[in-house]
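Q: what sequence does this backbone want?
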């Protein structure tokens, strides 16, 4: 099933005041202040930062996305995401449950919509293994990795609309390399979302240690 359409709509937008809360007011290193992560119990706890990988990227303008592990040398794994709202900067975060180093994931379904002026584009797509519209090669070395556009990218989000447009035209979307030029921005921004999933696990301790190291760099 593959649906991709653009609708022209004349609309007015009511801008409501936004109340912002600063991440800087929270001591993220004190895990005792945080609720246990909602990923606890949803993955094999033997998969630790010493032997597995967690990947992070912003995948904006989507309602849902599904990724499947396709490397035949590894066990099958499905990672499903539902995006229920934007963070304070307007990004949807995708944070994988732990996966095996060297494995490979492909996007198998994508649903979302995007406003651009008076145009509303929607997509609801399923992809076969032969299509491989978006493929993620998990690094060989265990650890946490963040992904963003290459050095020419102005923003660090991967826009669902761009992926859907590539799929609609029969092209593959080139997934960015890990730990690129927006690494510091992502580590600074994604901490609340990472805590939501991984607080009170070794993954959160590793994330905080790496975040502090990254943010100290000039």
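A:
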């Amino acid at each position: 099933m593959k649906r991709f359409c653009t609708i022209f709509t004349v609309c007015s937008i009511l801008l409501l005041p936004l109340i912002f809360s600063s991440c800087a007011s929270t001591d993220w290193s004190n895990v005792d202040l945080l609720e246990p992560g909602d990923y606890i119990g949803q993955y094999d706890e033997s998969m630790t930062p010493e032997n597995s990988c967690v990947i992070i990227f912003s995948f904006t303008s989507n309602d849902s996305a599904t990724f499947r592990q396709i490397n035949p040398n590894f066990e099958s794994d499905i990672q499903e995401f539902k995006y229920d709202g934007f963070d304070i900067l307007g990004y949807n975060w995708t944070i994988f449950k732990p996966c095996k180093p060297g494995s490979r994931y492909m996007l198998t379904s994508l649903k979302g919509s995007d406003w651009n002026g008076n145009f509303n584009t929607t997509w609801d797509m399923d992809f076969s293994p032969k299509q491989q519209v978006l493929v993620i090669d998990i690094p060989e070395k265990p650890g946490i990795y963040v992904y963003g556009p290459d050095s020419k990218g102005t923003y660090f989000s991967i826009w669902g609309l761009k992926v859907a447009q590539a799929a609609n035209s029969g092209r593959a979307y080139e997934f960015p390399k890990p730990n690129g030029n927006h690494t510091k921005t992502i580590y600074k921004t994604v901490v609340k979302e990472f805590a939501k999933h991984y607080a009170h696990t070794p993954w959160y301790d590793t994330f905080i240690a790496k975040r502090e190291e990254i943010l100290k760099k000039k």
